[in-house]
Specification:
about 575 residues; Gyrase A, domain 2; Isoleucyl-tRNA Synthetase, Domain 1; alpha/beta; 3 domains
């Protein structure tokens, strides 16, 4: 479809005298019954002081023919362009066969090395449900960038450093007496954190800051290399990582690198010295800061009065290390929208240090996820564990599948894939900056805009192909030109558009564009299959061998496009459901 679009751009440019970039910016997709592309003439009408319909008629008459674009027709204020359906079908189906599991990948001319910082949970706390957003948006972006030819360095930036560890170490001092450190689990560790946080909060009501000061002192001991602090901290990190890996394994998420904030401990002194050497460090209330008032931002805190580092210090050191190691042209921070100011701050600090590449640091923000209309939080103890949500979704899907298809082979495996896919798809089908609500009944339904619905669509296509194979495939090779019905053309067009949707998802760092296109493809496939159930002449398994072969080739192309789109979202594509 990209070839057809570029041909339409060139033909319109020649007919209007406008530049290629200007045409590209204005050209939109047309409804299937009106053609493939539509060029709105409102801007030209205003510029040339003529009615939009008159401009459209003039342009349509001047547009020539191409190899794919065969007709330009004025319809009101639009010039609608049609492509040769047979040619598009032949090219699309041939491309799917040739590229197979790589269909949908489109080489990005700007491809280089991209660092994607995502998931990034805090150590000593369980992976909560709200961690799903960063984890799965980032996981999908890793796949989407890789599909564009980028060298991807996915990093799990664990929160294994900072004042929260001072609180945890204090909690062990206060409440850990007589407990076996080796037997401690993550749930118990989080309970300690919640307990000490509540104690600090209660004490603060009396005006006392003793516990807060003691927690800060523990973190300072940790930074200074105190043996006891390091011993306890090491156990906390190991325990957390083991639990994280179980959940990542369930989700099918892997990282090129897992580096906690502590990894940059020995890299922070050089950063602080560079800031001081360039006169950027200012002492404010005893702390070292970089002033950013010219950008309308609060000061960026670099080091506390007691010498302890801060979150920004570690992020700055991480950015410098990553760029030095990978030479990345782009870095994505998949973190919630509440961190927007923080990202602006450390990006500006890097720019002040003279690093032009800081402009390539991009915040990929996302909204919150709610259950029952409420956010969850680990620090208050109101956490909803991600594993609990996944288990509930798997159990619900298992129940539905036993009712629908009790003899399904490998029921447990499929229920796990579909249950997890239901949770992930519900997250990714929404524009990432939107807040989303979680409703287990709604997201696990096999109807509507759900993960089970799109996965079932893939399984349905597989079932048709399996049946055809059992009955004996037509001996003649498929002729895509026979796919002349509007519903067939709609499917061809949606399959052809997949690479463009993947490209747009990469440009906007938004996997929902792929998820929404997948829904469109599934809906068109179900419409085609439903009509075929009522009208024998439109059945995929037609009696005429040439037509049957063409429709099976189309069905296989649809199946492959669905599987590839699901893969880019990090969701399985079961062949049976």
């Amino acid at each position: 479809m990209k070839q057809a679009r570029e041909e339409a751009v060139r033909l319109l440019s020649a007919a209007t005298g406008l530049g290629l970039a200007q045409i590209r910016a204005q050209l939109v997709e047309a409804p299937v019954e009106r053609g493939e592309f539509a060029f709105p003439c409102f801007p030209l009408a205003k510029e040339r002081k003529l009615a939009p319909a008159a401009i459209a008629a003039e342009i349509a008459a001047a547009v020539g023919q191409g190899q794919l674009v065969t007709e330009a027709r004025a319809e009101g204020p639009y010039v609608n362009l049609r492509v040769d359906r047979a040619a598009l079908a032949r090219r699309t189906l041939a491309a799917v066969v040739q590229q197979g599991t790589h269909y949908g990948e489109l080489e990005d001319e700007a491809a280089g090395t991209v660092v994607i910082d995502y998931s990034s949970p805090n150590v000593a706390k369980p992976l909560a449900f709200h961690h799903l957003r960063s984890t799965m948006i980032g996981n999908s972006l890793v796949r989407i960038y890789r599909a564009g030819g980028w060298q991807v360095e996915g990093i799990n930036h664990l929160g294994d450093w900072g004042t929260s560890f001072g609180k945890l170490l204090l909690a062990w001092e206060l409440y850990g007496a007589g407990r076996d450190l080796a037997a401690l689990d993550l749930e118990g560790l989080n309970a300690l954190y919640v307990q000490v946080s509540a104690a600090i909060k209660e004490q603060a009501k009396t005006g006392s800051t003793d516990l807060e000061a003691r927690s800060r002192a523990w973190f300072k001991r940790l930074e200074d290399g105190d043996g006891e602090a390091r011993r306890l901290w090491t156990r906390f990190v190991e325990l957390s990582q083991a639990e994280f890996d179980k959940v990542y394994g369930l989700l099918g998420v892997t990282f090129e690198h897992t580096w906690g904030e502590s990894f940059y401990e020995d890299k922070m002194p050089a950063l602080i010295e560079a800031l001081r050497a360039q006169g950027l460090l200012v002492v404010s209330e005893g702390a070292d800061v970089v002033m950013l008032e010219e950008a309308g931002l609060p000061p960026c805190l670099i080091r506390k009065q007691d010498g302890a580092s801060l979150y920004a210090t570690r992020d700055l050191a991480a950015a410098l290390y990553r760029h030095e190691r990978f030479g990345s042209s782009r870095t994505l921070y998949v973190i919630d929208r509440g961190q927007a100011v923080h990202v602006q701050q450390f990006r500006l600090v890097l720019a002040k240090l003279g690093h032009a590449w800081a402009q390539g640091l991009t915040h990929v923000p996302f909204g919150v996820v709610r259950m029952g209309g409420k956010k969850t939080a680990t620090r208050t103890g109101s956490v909803v564990l991600l594993t609990d949500v996944l288990d509930a979704a798997i159990a619900k899907v298992r129940e539905l599948m036993r009712a629908k298809n009790p003899d399904l082979p490998d029921m447990e495996c499929v229920a796990r894939e579909v249950g997890i896919g239901a949770v992930v798809f519900n997250d990714l089908r929404n524009f990432r900056e939107n807040d989303i609500d979680f409703d287990l009944e709604a997201i696990t339904a096999f109807e509507g805009k759900t993960g089970p619905y799109v996965m079932y669509s893939h399984a349905r296509a597989c079932s048709i192909l399996t049946r055809a194979k059992a009955e004996g495939l037509p001996p003649t090779p498929p002729d895509p030109a026979l796919l002349s019905h509007d519903l067939e053309h709609a499917l061809v067009r949606l399959v052809a558009q997949l690479p463009l949707r993947v490209e747009a998802a990469r440009a906007g760092n938004d996997p929902s564009l792929v998820a929404k296109h997948l829904l469109d493809l599934c809906e068109a496939f179900h419409a085609y299959h439903t009509v075929g159930g009522r009208d024998r002449s439109l059945r995929v398994l037609a009696e005429e061998a040439p037509l049957r072969a063409a429709r099976l080739a189309l069905t296989d192309a649809v199946r492959q496009a669905m599987a590839n789109a699901l893969g880019l979202l990090g969701i399985a594509a079961p062949a049976q459901m």
